Amino acid sequence: MTVRETPNRGIRYPGLEELAKVAFLRVMAEDVDTAITKTEALRATALRRPRARAWRATGSASITKNTWTALTGFDTVLYDNNGQANLGVNNDRLTAQTAGLYLYVGTAQGSTGGSAMGEGRISVVRNGAAPGTADHVDRAIWAGLGASTYTHSVWAVFLQAIGDRASLAVWWNGTPAGPATYSSYSLTSMMIAAQ
Amino acid sequence: MLITTSEGIPYPLAGDFSAIPNHIQALALSLDGLLPTWDAGYQAVVKTPSFLLRASGAGAAVTIGNSAQLPVDTTVFANAGALVSNNYQQAASDVPSWWLVGCYIALTNGGTVTANTINKVAIAATYSWGGSTFTPGPPISSVVVANPATPTGAIYGEQTETNNGGEVVQAVGVIKLFGAATVIARYVHTDTGAGATRASLAGSALWGMRLGNV
To answer: Would you say A135 and B107 are in contact if contact means Cβ atoms under 8 Å apart?
Structure first.
């Protein structure tokens, strides 16, 4: 018996001498089934670009003045279609499950409880990078005009390998002794392109 | 042998029994040709044309009322177009497209810095045709502020000067690119402090993702 198969997907098909054996048609049908299943998996991935959002809905974090502090305690996954959040293991990050270019957005609300805050910064951090590096993208707001509660946001684009993580960190300074409290913070990710 | 209406999959006519092996082969080969085409389409969706470019060094120091181009010189990621002369350049063969573009520029200060002044960045697209340089139509998002030191038809972002350790200024918006158009990012200095200057720092970035055809 000569096994014939197609060049791209290796679909086996019977020749004249195998036609009398129905089993060979079943082999062809199963090969077609396997090939279509792979295509369906690609379609599912194409239509569901990896995205996730983790949020701290309850409680707050205490942040010492003039100290970069990682935000932890995410307690709610608003959406996550490919397992970037695992709050039971790490409640402070989103971990890439597909290699590619990602857009991250971080938001947070800070307060010094009535006293005017000076400057607040929020950062999206890749793999725990140190402040002042390319993987620690921070953005400041100036609340020196008298605000004691403020919200701010930052976005960053990182090239992530599988297992690379993104997290949030904040810093503040000003007249109050502190600590400041940060609440209702969230980290959002969207894959721009697979690598 | 006939073919189906949508995908052209061959099938035998009734009574054409003598050529059944050929029909089965034709059916298998037809499917074998269709599936890779579908796969390529789905793979193209997740590999959205996009780029992330970084500056490996500091940019020029500019004085009040002036601007300088962000000196991006490192390609972190680009699956379409290329880094050309500190710009991102869409491939010449690409159709006119909408792009979501953004930048984050870390700025350092020189001289006497004045708190509460504005640091500004701008992203603009230009293209050359017939020896002249054109700026495509205005972006469909963000606020455009007139300033003689900055390009027209640009996306702007602002950051209040905190006078504490430099600033990171960000901008993001949707912009139209024609074939071979370039995207550039600039930082603008508006501080009125005596002798104050601004310069971009290494690690500053320009990024973009294609949204679709115009």
So the answer is: no
Quote the CA–CA distance of A183 and A147 in Å, as a whole number. Answer: 16
Query: Which of B132, B128, B131, B123 is closest to B179 using CA atoms?
Result: B128
Q: Residue A84 and residue A104: Cα distance in Å, rounded?
A: 12
Per-residue pLDDT band for B17 (boundaries 50, 70, 90) equals: low
> Of all helices (H) and strands (E), which one includes residue B68?
strand B67-69
Question: How many Cα atoms are found within 13 Å in the side-chain-facing hemisphere of B107?
Answer: 38
Length of chain B: 214
Most A CBs within 10 Å: which of B54, B162, B169, as the mutation test of the A interface? Answer: B162
Which residue is listed with tokens 């086996």? A12
A4-21 as b/e, with b when 16 or more CB fall inside 10 Å? Answer: bebebbebbbbeeebeee
- What is the rounded CA–CA span in Å between residue A88 and residue A54? 12
Over residues A43-67, the pLDDT tens digits come to 888 888 899 999 999 999 999 999 9
- Name the residue among A8, A43, A158 with its Cβ closest to that of B42: A43
Please state whether the predicted TM-score (pTM) of the whole model is above 0.90.
no
Query: At A151, which amino acid appears?
Result: T
Q: Is the pLDDT of residue B150 over 60?
A: no
Cα dihedral value B171, B174, B177, B183, nearest 10: 10
pLDDT at A82: 92
- Cα distance between residue A94 and residue A64, in whole Å: 24
Residue A12 CA to residue B190 CA, distance in Å, equals: 70
A178 or B179, higher pLDDT: A178
C-alpha torsion B76→B79→B82→B83, nearest 10: -10
Query: Which residue from A6, A139, A158 is facing B32, i.e. has the nearest CB?
Result: A6
In tens, the pLDDT along A143-177 reads: 655 567 788 899 999 999 999 999 999 998 888 88
Question: Distance from B212 to chain A by nearest Cα, in Å?
Answer: 13
Give A114 or B204, the one with higher predicted confidence. Answer: B204
ipTM: 0.83
In chain A, residues with a C-beta closer than 8 Å to the C-beta of B160 are 140-142
CB of B58 within 8 A of CB of B68? Answer: no
B92: burial class by Cβ within 10 Å (0-12, 13-18, 19+)?
Answer: exposed
What's the pLDDT band for B135 if we cut at 50, 70, 90?
Answer: low
